[in-house]
Design goal:
This is GMP synthase (glutamine-hydrolyzing). Pathway: Purine metabolism; GMP biosynthesis; GMP from XMP (L-Gln route): step 1/1. Its EC number is 6.3.5.2. It holds the Pfam family GMP_synt_C. Helix 5 crosses helix 10. The strands form four sheets. A five-stranded parallel sheet has the order 2-1-3-6-7, with helices on one face. The longest helix is centred in the middle third of the chain and has 21 residues. Strand 4 and strand 5 form a beta hairpin. It has three domains: 110 residues, Class I glutamine amidotransferase (GATase) domain (Rossmann fold, 3-Layer(aba) Sandwich); 186 residues, Rossmann fold (3-Layer(aba) Sandwich); 96 residues, GMP Synthetase, Chain A, domain 3 (2-Layer Sandwich), CATH 3.30.300.10. It has 435 residues and is of the alpha/beta class. Helix content is 36%, strand content 20%. The chain is built from 13 helices and 17 strands.
Amino acid sequence: MKQDMIILLDLGSRNNSAIARGIRDLGVYSEIHPHDITLEQLSRLPNIKGIIINGGTNNHIDGVKIDVDHRIYKSGLPIMVVNHEPAEGEHIIANWPENDQEISKVLRSFVFNTCEAVPNWNMKNFIEDQVELIKRQVGDKKVLLALSGGVDSSVVAALLLKAIGKKLVCVHVNHGLMRKGESEGVLEVFKNQMDANLVYVDASERFLNKLAGVADPEEKRKIIGAEFIRVFEEEARKLEGIEFLAQGTIYPDIVESGTKTASVVKSHHNVGGLPDDLQFSLVEPLYHLFKDEVRACGIELGLPATMVYRQPFPGPGLGVRCLGAINKIRLEAVRESDAILREEFEIAGLDKKVWQYFTIVPDFKSVGVKDHARSYEYPVIIRAINTIDAMTASIEPIDWPILLKITDRILKEVPYINRVCYDLSPKPCATIEWE
């Protein structure tokens, strides 16, 4: 890595991600590491210019207060200690101000005045680093990429094509949980237009059978993640020289899947769902990027804006939007209502304004009236949010006539639905997805 770096050591703070993002916004690379990293491990990280030891409310494990390796305080590196009682050694003690502007001032002073870091964090340098690292890791072997067609996997594909060219084999798995027309679109863009080395696998029945009767969202995610790996292993056995699995894992996936000082928000299929007997070595070039940085990377790589700014879609797909145990009636209701929502948002120009929007169908019914008779059917819930880095999210206010039109279409066109609701919950306390 050519960039200077500031390290955050996590002592249970809830604002680690925001601080890391704030440092990167200054043009200096930053990473979050667990509190128990050793001085030896720390010394192997490249170009460290300073350390922030960031305390917080979750600074206990099993009732015991945690601290960093005490030798780090005497490492000779500039250290800023926040909301924590430090051990002896040279350091700056600070508290985070109440507003973002003041926090930026504190960070700017520490990063540039104290650490004398150079603002050389940019996507051009990042791509050069990753291409070099990928070449070194992969050598003359082949890489299998799970290509969903979403932003993350598309940017990974572009990076790998730049680094290893035809040694990349893309596999698109239709797990039966895709949005309407999604798999067809992936085949059109990547196989027909981009001439990628693409294998298409229709495993929809296989996934749905595995998920039959499974209601717990964590279990669903892990089943989907594990089954993905099995499909890739089967496809890899049909090829020669496949030793690596590439994934579009990004930083929010890692943060939300939990660390020693942070509870699990939800396990991501590409983090918490990987089996212990994984047959591949992983290639994850976006591992330390936030979502907006992934998009910037895609633009720098020359991907079209329509692909880079495509609406995010979770790896488990509609499986986490068909709440509870999945059945085909509710799954189809999610798929059709989502298609209506996306169509109407595009007509209204909201597709360029709203970061993510989708529908959910829960596993309960309500009484209604259809065709002058009692109905007992499912509701559809609409969610539309805006965010920069997927760590926090705000609700997008939608004009009433647009919501009424969407509601009318869903109630008329989607079978087994008799209510439409709008979710007004920001993140936090809610997450972006319901499961």
